[in-house]
Amino acid sequence: MSLPIIDTFGRKHTYLRISLTDKCNLRCTYCMPQEDMQFMPSKWLMQADEIEELAKIFVEMGVEKIRLTGGEPLVRKDAGQIIERLGLLNTSLTLTTNALLVDQYIGQLKSAGVQSLNVSLDTLKEDQFKSITKRDHFSKTLENIELLLSEGFTVKINVVLMRGVNDQEVNDFVRLTLRNARLHVRFIEFMPFNGNQWDMSKIVSYADLLSTINNEFDFKQLPGELHDTAKSFQVKDGAGTFGIIGTVTHPFCSGCNRIRLTADGKLKNCLFDTSEVDLLKPLRNGQDVRPLILDHFHKKHFAHGGHVAFDEKHAKTDYEQNRRMIAIGG
Q: Is the dihedral of CA 224, 96, 94, 62 positive or negative?
């Protein structure tokens, strides 16, 4: 039996996020900060059978949940095949998507046992959507969110908040949660990555969010779990929930159970850690990758990949040593 993935702080890692591709059909400025991105050649990427093989290894090592990410995972031509294969494993399966292509995968998602999807949507205004994403797909996104809900899926809308961009829409998003028990909103503090022009002044903090929402709604905090990334709340008499992922001002590192595998088969033990371990080449060479996994997580820092605090003078330079967000996986 394989050893569980436990770091030196006693955190057991049971949640695997697999990026299928660094390509996307949108160009969100905080994720892919330029139009002329150079994407990974296909030969660098994990193939479907390699993704399945690595996923099986992680499940043997105690992984209980797998999330497929990108880029946009569904732009990959064999995404449906990968979803079907991973759906057969003894673990729950979900994905993060911009929803533009989900109408083509409803049947496969259901047959794979997917019950919930995270959908990235940073604005409820058509013109602002085009400004943020550099694409004119607002109507299609909303249509497919409604389709997912009508087909019985739970939808968690991920909103990356940026001051002066979409911070005036906070309560509009909260209002979405009032009537549908399967619709949830998660506000995400703007985080620093290579090339995304981050600085602290652009952050809408956890405290600022609660203050804004409190101006219009009566709400309560809901009980949480050790591994939760979001603090969850519910408006009085509301059906759904809203949450805040306060990575910058309210970090949740003490309960971290996440494992990240990039589309080119690199293992990251933290979203912000710049050290990576190649699992794909050893796998292709027939090597047992379990010792590599255990060793990498034995080296995991307690918080934020060992980087300085976000509010320190050189934080922007420090965090920009990392990959672009789209090359890590959402």
A: negative
